[in-house]
């Protein structure tokens, strides 16, 4: 039995060892649409929710223009409001590489009479920044290669003892789980009864198979918008959701990532808005998203789907101009796409804007929004919306926890769970690379080996921390790999620029935190690499869900440590429809790239030092500009009303501490 078999315990039947790791192994992305496979049941009652007030007044007017999925307009606004140019890490890295090249040229002139040993050292140093390495394994990247015997035998007796002890512990844990399952049977039965009483019965759902959007009797402007986006046949979640949403019922929907949940709630919203009263403009729909990038993407998709209607949209997220958003909200757009914090800011401080006429509330990635970090904000937003609204919650890992859903004031919601809640896409190949306990320091070298030898384009790498993502961005730049970073320490302009560069193929790697794990839809992503396994399995599903979307092929590679056994077992158990493989990285290749990383350590420190100095200079310039504005425009500034928040400073700090505590609790074993 192999070492990896011991590692995953008794669930090794679904695990294969990767034998071909050549570059040609990367999955070929097939761009074709899938027809919906699951039928839905017919609604015998056909009741329309009487709380809706959309009147029957004909359709909307056509308007031309192709609204592509991009952030060009948003970035132009951000550039216009940027007072001081921001530090560009790529420029600093390029400058450092140029200095290194000049230094090497000078050394070569002096090295003519040096020994052969010194020449070899120079070639190795020059290899640090080389794009192509000659000493590659004959079969590509360690194809079918098992780790060195020396590496395997190191601490063999200790590992054997620990593995046997861990097996005994796992048996005890399994026995404990069986006992606890028996003890909690009554509790589970109680929860089942609660859910039956809370959710609408399954028979309330329509039972018709739709092979095209035309079969749903949607309006012509909506069908033209769908055709423009490229949608041909509705997916399973769209097939179930659209008819129910058109009836005005509350919905709690879940489906795997990349299954078309955004269109599932946008299409019925647009259809109903075509028949809205036009005498008085008002904001009737609110779509909430947990991150700015997801909100921008949802806004872009919705605008494109509505490009043949007169429906107006407004985007309200942090990082963009508050004043420009206030001007748009004064026009009372039909749909507002927002993040919770900025929305509350506008509700309290923007004149003539409120949510009193909101008739539809949608929460994308609702399970994330229902967590403790958003609890107070969501409570404030729900209080601002009418009780008679329609509420729709969607996520790939949607919760059916009644206690959490009660906070949203859902009324007999219809539960539309297309796929099991903890399951990856069917065409995803999941691979795992074992990192031994005494080899945790090899993670950067393993990542660099994977990216230099096998996965050379359209790859997202996820990290747990912003600092790790930023430092690896510098390492990638010094090693000749084009990359962009995406995390919370960047400005909004930098975040959108990184997404556009990666989408357009200007960079091959996107180094991101979990900020990019939810909802982002970038076509053609071939590989997702997890530098660390996330602490929650649902977060792992969101990460790997960035690839293998909409029926395409995809691959994920996760570096697994000894502390990640539980999540690994969950991944294998849930992978009934996907392939699970063990990827082996040759020990000599890890040593090679570890040596390279050690050689460029000082360069990384120099780049970070220069970046810190540039940031301090920029901060000083901003403070100077702020002081000048205070002197020149003091009367205007002090005459503005102070912006308020729904919490005082003490409550805000308490809420922040609760969020931090909940976040840290995820990392406890």
TrEMBL record:
Comp. bias intervals (Basic residues): 31-41
GO molecular function: ATP binding; hydrolase activity; RNA binding; RNA helicase activity
Record keywords, A-Z: ATP-binding, Coiled coil, Helicase, Hydrolase, Nucleotide-binding, Nucleus, Ribosome biogenesis, RNA-binding
Residue ranges of the region described as Disordered: 29-52, 103-200
Domain DEAD-box RNA helicase Q: 211-239
Coiled-coil blocks: 590-637
GO cellular component, one term: cytosol
Domain Helicase ATP-binding stretches: 242-416
Subcellular location: Nucleus, Nucleolus
Enzyme class: hydrolase
Record-listed E.C. numbers: 3.6.4.13
Highest taxon above the source species: Eukaryota
Annotated Acidic residues bias: 146-157, 179-188
Example GO biological process: rRNA processing
Known catalytic reactions: ATP + H2O = ADP + phosphate + H(+)
Helicase C-terminal domain boundaries: 446-592
Sequence motif: Q motif, positions: 211-239
Known role: ATP-binding RNA helicase involved in ribosome assembly.
Entry's family note: Belongs to the DEAD box helicase family. DDX27/DRS1 subfamily.
PANTHER family: ATP-DEPENDENT RNA HELICASE DBPA, ATP-DEPENDENT RNA HELICASE RHLE-RELATED
Protein name in the entry: ATP-dependent RNA helicase DRS1
Species per Swiss-Prot/TrEMBL record: Mortierella isabellina (Filamentous fungus)
């Amino acid at each position: 039995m192999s070492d990896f078999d011991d590692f995953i315990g008794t669930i090794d039947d679904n695990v294969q060892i990767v034998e071909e790791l050549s570059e040609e192994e990367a999955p070929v992305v097939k761009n074709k649409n899938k027809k919906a496979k699951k039928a839905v049941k017919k609604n015998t009652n056909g009741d329309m929710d009487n709380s809706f007030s959309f009147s029957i007044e004909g359709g909307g007017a056509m308007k031309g223009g192709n609204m592509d999925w991009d952030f060009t307009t948003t970035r132009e606004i951000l550039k216009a409001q940027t007072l001081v140019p921001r530090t560009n890490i790529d420029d600093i890295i390029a400058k450092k590489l140029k200095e290194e090249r000049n230094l090497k040229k000078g050394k070569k002139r002096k090295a003519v009479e040096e020994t052969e040993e010194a020449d070899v050292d120079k070639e190795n140093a020059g290899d640090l920044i080389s794009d192509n390495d000659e000493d590659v394994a004959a079969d590509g990247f360690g194809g079918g290669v098992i780790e060195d015997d020396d590496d395997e035998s190191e601490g063999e007796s200790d590992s054997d003892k620990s593995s046997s002890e861990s097996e005994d512990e796992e048996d005890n844990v399994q026995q404990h789980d069986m006992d606890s399952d028996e003890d909690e049977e009554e509790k589970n039965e109680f929860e089942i009864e609660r859910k039956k009483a809370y959710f609408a019965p399954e028979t309330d759902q329509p039972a018709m198979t739709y092979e095209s959007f035309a079969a749903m009797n949607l309006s012509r402007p909506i069908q033209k918008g769908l055709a423009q986006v490229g949608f041909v046949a509705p997916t399973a979640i769209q097939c179930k959701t659209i008819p129910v949403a058109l009836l005005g019922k509350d919905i709690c929907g879940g489906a795997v990532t990349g299954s078309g949940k955004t269109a599932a709630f946008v299409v019925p919203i647009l259809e109903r808005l075509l028949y809205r009263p036009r005498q008085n403009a008002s904001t009737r729909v609110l779509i909430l998203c947990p991150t700015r990038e997801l909100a921008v993407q949802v806004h872009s998709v919705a605008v494109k789907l509505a490009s043949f209607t007169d429906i107006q949209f407004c985007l309200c997220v942090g990082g963009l101009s508050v004043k420009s958003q206030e001007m748009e909200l004064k026009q009372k757009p039909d749909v507002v796409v927002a993040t919770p914090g900025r929305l509350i800011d506008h509700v309290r401080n923007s004149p003539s804007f409120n949510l009193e006429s909101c008739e539809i509330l949608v929460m994308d990635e609702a399970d994330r929004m229902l967590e403790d970090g958003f609890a107070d904000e969501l409570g404030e937003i729900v209080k601002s919306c009418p009780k008679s609204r329609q509420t729709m919650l969607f996520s790939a890992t949607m919760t059916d926890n009644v206690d959490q859903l009660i906070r949203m004031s859902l009324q007999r919601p219809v539960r539309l769970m297309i796929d099991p809640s903890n399951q990856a896409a069917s065409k995803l190949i999941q691979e795992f690379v074992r990192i031994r306990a005494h080899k945790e320091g090899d993670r950067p070298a393993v990542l660099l080996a994977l990216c230099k030898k096998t996965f050379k384009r359209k790859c997202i790498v996820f990290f747990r921390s912003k600092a790790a993502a930023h430092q690896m961005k510098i390492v990638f730049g010094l090693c000749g790999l084009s990359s962009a970073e995406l995390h919370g320490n960047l400005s909004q302009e930098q975040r959108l620029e990184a997404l556009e560069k990666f989408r357009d193929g200007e960079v091959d790697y996107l180094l991101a935190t979990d900020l990019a794990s939810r909802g982002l839809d970038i076509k053609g992503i071939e590989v997702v690499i997890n530098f660390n396994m996330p602490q929650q399995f649902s977060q792992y599903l969101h990460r790997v869900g960035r690839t293998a979307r909409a029926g395409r092929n995809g691959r994920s590679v996760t570096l697994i440590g000894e502390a990640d056994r539980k999540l690994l077992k969950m991944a294998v158990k849930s992978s009934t429809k996907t392939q699970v493989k063990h990827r082996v990285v040759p020990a000599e290749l890890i040593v090679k790239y570890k040596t390279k990383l050690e050689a460029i350590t000082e360069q990384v420190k120099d780049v970070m030092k220069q970046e810190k100095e540039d940031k301090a200079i920029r901060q000083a310039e901003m403070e100077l500009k702020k002081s000048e504005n205070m002197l020149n425009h003091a009367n205007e500034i002090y005459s503005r009303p102070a912006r308020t928040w729904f919490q005082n400073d003490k409550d805000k700090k308490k809420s922040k501490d609760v969020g931090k505590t909940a976040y840290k609790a995820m990392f406890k074993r």
